[in-house]
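The methods section describes the discrete structure representation at length, but only in general terms. What matters is that the chain and its backbone geometry are given together, residue for residue. Nothing conveys this as quickly as seeing an actual entry. For illustration, here is how one protein appears when written out as sequence plus structure tokens:
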Amino acid sequence: MLETFSQSVDTLYGLSDQVAPHPFRTEILRLIRKLVSYDGAIFKIGSIVVRIDCESVTQHASSSIPTALLPEVFFPGLSKISGRMSGETALGPLVCSNQKLIEQILGKVAQHTGQDFGAQSLLAFGDLRSEGPEPQWIILYRRSGEDFNSSEGILLQEFWIHIARAVSFNLGQTMNSNDPARRKRAMGMLNQNGTLEAADALLTSMLKEEWGDFDGYSVPACVLNELRTVGRFRGTRIELRVFEKSGYLVCEARRTSVFNTLAPKEKKVAYLFANGISYGQIASQLGVSPHTVRNQLAQVYQKLDIHSKIELAKIIAKM
């Protein structure tokens, strides 16, 4: 078994560099089956939920099981197995052969998927945290044969450490494929729930600059909606642009210049004045009075928090 475990770990990390995020989750389940036999599995890490049934040889994407339903469905039953209170989120490894509890855990999912799991034994492991990164867990079940045992639970727990690392590396590789040189970059992978599953340190720092209460994980719902709708978001300090890849929103941020806070007419006056054109010449060129030009420049200085033409020129030079 030690040799099989080592081979599975090697294969896991090898695949993490070759396979896209969604199919990589399915490959993980196949590797787990070499270590712990099962008839079916439900696996969630990040926003991706994969269900595999070995009898029907089918794989189901996250749309088959509403992700919002999962913690609500699984937690009560799993808490009873583990003896944990509802505020505690760590799971397992937990082994259960109590049919009533198994039905509590899998029954509602069966209603949504239209499949009777027929499970007689269950093995669960993971984390149902409600804050921070999204919950990540796995449930294996058997319809017949021997029940799961604690040794198999420990084996799954040991392999899970490598799963978490490999998934993180897999997302990083997917992100890096868009910028192999990895310049001073602010890029991240947003899942469909708006949670950052992988991110450059610079991106996290910039998001905290934009939103002082940013928790390091999730962008505001209104921002996520705008990113989905138009593919970009312009904030006070940063601009975000996204494109879809492998079921994720690849997000890149750049700092916006304070110059962009100016109105179009103010920008035009500022450009001309910074280039050495006088009030009178600007007024003549734009068809307004010199007094109007002076007022507009006063507004420019106030908005940019500057006090001289030199400071204005420096801001424009950085554009």
